[in-house]
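Write out this protein's structure.
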Amino acid sequence: MYETKTAHVEAILIMDTRSVRAGLRNQDLAGNWSRLYKANQLYLDLSLKVERGSAVLMGQVIEAKPLESRPTDAKPEPVESTLKGQARLKTLSDTVAAQVDLDESGGFRLDLPRGVTHHLEVRLSGLTVRISDLTA
């Protein structure tokens, strides 16, 4: 059996809401954050929501596509994601802790255990994007 080669890319953080001063944020939102990562021609939009002692990591993979020129009166066409793949949470020992398929819009939702550091891997056809050191 042949193994297919997969490129591995570490995503680069380009935006993080935790840089907002704590005094400007609502106390109920402590621990919640949103981040935007870039890897090749992909963006990963992640949000962590902490409620009643549990944490949920929600994400969406967005393909960066060039804008096409079209007449200004043209109706926008529906956007369908061509991204098919999986999102995985892995422990520091590289064990898969949770895994889900991306939905039709490239989105996913994973429970993130509190106080434990994980890595996120988004596996697409021929590409694995990794985000290190996620902790709720």
